[in-house]
Design brief:
Shape: globular
Distance between the termini: 16 Å
Order of helices and strands: EHEHEHEHEEHEHEHH
Helix content: 25-40%
Number of helices: 8
Length: 222
């Protein structure tokens, strides 16, 4: 199963409820929420209250990506707000195992995130404790950035690591996912495709998501 997860960072926040309902009707599988604190990344987005509001208007899984310092201080709040999946950056966690354990204890599924220049060795010892790994294919902080091509090599190597250990882990990608890049991304072995401006910046959300899905399916068949 492959999942398309529109990132609400690129949505029109003056009518966020309508935007979420629109992508849900268009065939989105998950809703992705990028949480930024202005310290770990050079941008500030939103907190648990927005996630709670999103939870009230959609039944889709909510995937929360914490791009913040001291994420363990906020995991419980986001889980209570309704996050189904919560991922933390390896670069911001001093005690990564403890943070992942807390996510699971709060009833959410834990994930770990790697920035583009962070090597896979940083997750080697915690793969047994996560449900998914998110590979950033842009440097986090802003939407609409250009895709970093060597992210595909990292994903292929990650897939080999997962396969070698017979683990059931989803691989997610975020950054520069669009009609031009999604085929190559699908070929590399991604399960969850986060797309922000490529979806919310398009004229017809359904046509865009359908187009993504067709290219993903073709890549799987080939």
């Amino acid at each position: 199963m492959k999942y398309i997860a529109p990132s609400i960072l690129s949505a029109d926040f003056t009518r966020l409820g309508e935007e979420i309902k629109a992508v849900e009707a268009a065939g989105a599988d998950w809703i992705h929420a990028d949480i930024m604190d202005g310290h770990f990344v050079p941008n500030i987005t939103f907190g648990p209250m927005i996630v709670e509001a999103v939870r009230r208007i959609t039944s889709l899984p909510i995937d929360v990506h914490l791009m913040i310092e001291n994420p363990e201080d906020y995991i419980t709040a986001f889980a209570k707000a309704g996050a189904d999946y919560i991922s933390v950056q390896v670069e911001s966690c001093v005690h990564l195992n403890r943070s992942l354990q807390l996510i699971r204890e709060c009833g959410a599924k834990p994930g770990v995130v790697l920035n583009p220049s962070t090597p896979l060795q940083f997750v080697d010892w915690i793969l047994d404790y996560v449900d998914y790994v998110l590979v950033m294919s842009v440097n986090p902080g802003f939407g609409g950035q250009a895709f970093i091509p060597n992210s595909l090599d990292k994903i292929r190597e990650l897939r080999r690591m997962i396969r070698a250990r017979s683990l059931n882990i989803l691989v997610e990608i975020d950054g520069g996912v669009n009609a031009k890049t999604i085929s190559a991304i699908a070929d590399s072995g991604v399960d969850i495709f986060v797309a922000g401006s490529a979806i919310f910046g398009s004229r017809n959300y359904k046509d865009t998501i359908d187009g993504f899905r067709k290219k993903i399916e073709i890549s799987i068949i080939v």
